[in-house]
Design brief:
46% of the residues lie in helices and 15% in strands. It is α/β, with parallel strands linked by helices. The protein has two domains: 127 residues, Alpha-Beta Complex (Aspartate Aminotransferase, domain 1); 235 residues, Aspartate Aminotransferase, domain 2. The strands form three sheets. A seven-stranded mixed beta sheet has the order 3-9-8-7-6-4-5, with helices on both faces. A three-stranded mixed beta sheet has the order 1-2-11. It has a three-stranded antiparallel beta sheet with strand order 10-13-12, with helices on one face. The chain starts with a helix and ends in a 5-residue tail after the last helix. It binds 4'-deoxy-4'-aminopyridoxal-5'-phosphate. 4'-deoxy-4'-aminopyridoxal-5'-phosphate (PMP) binds next to helix 5.
């Protein structure tokens, strides 16, 4: 190893470890369901994005197994050579149906979807108005585009309007985009899409919504754009196939000409091997399940409401969540980490989230209940929350 690399790695790793910021990963020994096993111990899992429990759904597993028997395990090439299987075409038709758009394009992950789509349409002559709490993949996609990034305060529509006006009046930019998460994963709040659309119309902004945490969850499962009935007003409906849909991948749904452009200009579509066939078939089947029935969605919300009510009754500060994502805001970083650690020892896996992921002094333990949790599991979790909360003086 080069001496320069060695000292770079050693110095930086030491600094992280000294500051307690090196994230030691503990593997889950088995499926990532409502109960997970770590180091041989069963834990109530409140930290997965598997909102509808589809990651371990029996019907989807069967679809994946049968698809492997027919198609094998890999797509064999990038989409534009001969990696586009008939399964990918069916998936994209299903995505367009699911989102109520003319067309859709899929990618290998939600993260590379944002990198791909933003940088395919925006360039150095453009500007992007980006919510201050947008996901890392949006930030990286914006950076990759080389457009001017103008952050607006989180969900602050006055700030957005002022910055949109200033950007237009500067005359510096050919195109201007406004980009936001649909559901913010740290607090569970929903973007103010009707106001964003109004501002976008006034200033001719391109609209881009990353609904990673909304698809399958809001809008009766169809997402946050549908929740507000804005399917005709949002240009880019982006989402992941790895959270509520339970598999892996990302997508953009929108107008045919936009999808046509992404197919010739977004680099992961052109230069990275297509999603594997079994995943594609399982995703398509999962989307059909959501189109056919709201049962899983309804169960998710029932569980979310149940957990929220229980935590609130115990006296926890659960913030302003409008979705099943339920933070327990503790405040001080060390106490937040201690709280999460004690929950783990008692049998609840709920990760702590602290600065720099959230603002200093707003450390939290974030709970992500799913449709697959039973009420008994949530009751067990609440008993542990009460015990640890009292022990650490967080609740009375
Ligand atoms: N956008 C948002 C808002 C996300 O939370 C995530 C996942 N953490 C992504 C994009 C990336 O999605 P994926 O995990 O499917 O790559």
């Amino acid at each position: 190893m080069s001496k320069a690399l060695h000292s770079f790695l050693e110095e930086n790793l030491k600094e992280l470890r000294d500051q307690g910021l090196y994230n030691e990963i503990e593997p889950v020994e088995g499926p990532n369901g409502p109960i997970i096993k770590i180091k041989g111990k069963n834990l109530i899992n409140l930290s997965a994005n598997n909102y509808l429990g589809l990651a371990t759904n029996a019907q989807l597993k069967e679809v994946a197994k049968q698809t492997i028997d027919v198609y094998g395990v890999g797509a064999g090439a990038v989409r534009t050579i001969n990696g586009t299987l008939d399964l990918h075409v069916k998936l994209e038709e299903k995505l367009a149906e699911f989102k109520g758009t003319e067309a859709a394009i899929s990618y290998q992950s939600g993260f590379n979807c944002n990198m791909a789509a933003i940088s395919a349409v925006m360039d150095k002559n453009d500007a992007i108005l980006s919510d201050a709490l947008n996901h890392a993949s949006i930030i990286d996609g914006c950076r990759l585009s080389k457009a001017k990034i103008i952050a607006f305060n989180h969900s602050d529509m006055t700030d957005l309007r002022n910055k949109a006006q200033a950007a237009v009046e500067s005359g510096l930019y050919k195109k201007i985009m406004v980009i936001t998460d649909g559901v913010f994963s740290m607090d569970g709040d929903i973007a103010k899409l009707p106001e964003i659309v109004e501002i976008a119309k006034e200033f001719d902004l391109i609209t881009y919504v990353d609904d990673a945490h909304g698809s399958g969850v809001t809008g009766k499962g169809m997402g946050t754009v549908k929740h507000f009935g804005l399917q005709n007003d949002i240009d880019f409906q982006m989402g992941t196939l790895s959270k509520a849909i339970g598999v892996v991948g990302g997508y953009v749904a929108g107008k045919q000409n936009m999808i046509d452009w992404l197919k010739v200009r977004s680099r992961p579509f052109l230069f990275s091997t297509a999603l594997p066939p079994a995943d594609v078939a399982a995703i398509t089947a999962a989307l059909q399940m959501l189109i056919d029935s709201t049962e899983l969605h309804d169960q998710l919300w029932e569980n979310g409401d149940y957990l929220k009510a229980g935590l609130k009754k115990l006296g926890f500060n659960i913030g302003n969540s409008e979705t099943p994502i339920t933070p327990c805001i503790i405040g001080e970083e060390k106490l937040t980490q201690q709280f999460s650690r004690r929950l783990l020892e008692e049998g609840v896996y709920a990760k702590s989230i602290v600065f720099p992921t959230v603002q200093k002094g707003t450390g939290r333990v974030r709970n992500m209940p799913s449709a697959a949790h039973t009420q008994a599991m949530l009751d067990d979790a609440l008993v542990i929350y009460e015990k640890v909360g009292k022990e650490l003086g967080i609740i009375n």
